[in-house]
Amino acid sequence: xxxxxxxxxxxxxxxxxxxxxxxxxxxxxxxxxxxxxxxxxxxxxxxxxxxxxxxxxxxxxxxxxxxxxxxxxxxxxxxxxxxxxxxxxxxxxxxxxxxxxxxxxxxxxxxxxxxxxxxxxxxxxxxxxxxxxxxxxxxxxxxxxxxxxxxxxxxxxxxxxxxxxxxxxxxxxxxxxxxxxxxxxxxxxxxxxxxxxxxxxxxxxxxxxxxxxxxxxxxxxxxxxxxxxxxxxxxxxxxxxxxxxxxxxxxxxxxxxxxxxxxxxxxxxxxxxxxxxxxxxxxxxxxxxxxxxxxxxxxxxxxxxxxxxxxxxxxxxxxxxxxxxxxxxxxxxxxxxxx
Length: 339
Hints:
This protein has 14 helices and twelve strands. By secondary structure, it is α/β, with parallel strands linked by helices. The protein has a domain at 274-337: Beta-grasp domain (Ubiquitin-like (UB roll)), CATH 3.10.20.30. The relative contact order is 0.14.
């Protein structure tokens, strides 16, 4: 799963998913979020295609456990079990009154509580691995990585806030360490507010914070696109808050977009940064990857200046690249292939 929306009970997780997806998300196993992109808007306006498709990411809500506590696991332990296996957490903090919460809103309190529980859970995992080493030995690389992780967690530092090389990450893979997953903080604020409450820098560990009234954001998401922009302008915002969150999440997932264009469809395709042209062609269709010959590449800005792929080709601005070429965000690609 690309994203998991997490947070204490009653913070607004379902409302955030509704705002991002434009549909009621309560109880849904997962939703698809379209990533707004003005470049796609302009390409679509130019080509007037039959279909326009934005890059997409998948998200789910980790709902707070309901019902009686298990005899074996506490409420928080059951919650932490279900949030494992995501590439990014959207961590919702409550700084407003909500129907499902009875205690006063306090974003700092909620941040410290869930952060502390996640750090403690990972610390327990590391300590158990070290304790069982005499019966389940770890290889040297994993042992070193686990001991380093334990030291970071003992200093109350989440693992995603530390630098790890590829070998260390490979050694920690499969251990389900929750704090290795990076986070984007979304603060649910009262209607009319545009700023988040002051959160101590030492508690943020570099996390990006987006303040938004989720109730209003969910309502705005159901409006036509032009009305959403008008509402944002009225609020003094450059774009709807849900668009800001979706784009920031996309960036933190380390994804980039390349485009295919034509009268049938203008489409944004998402690939991890550092993807080569042949692998990217496979996102369009497996035949293109299998029979890849060359990729015709032009930056979005160059295309918009010259008008068409043919004009770019005639002006010598269309690059012919091989299978190892690493795509850049915003490039338009046409694949030559033979199968």
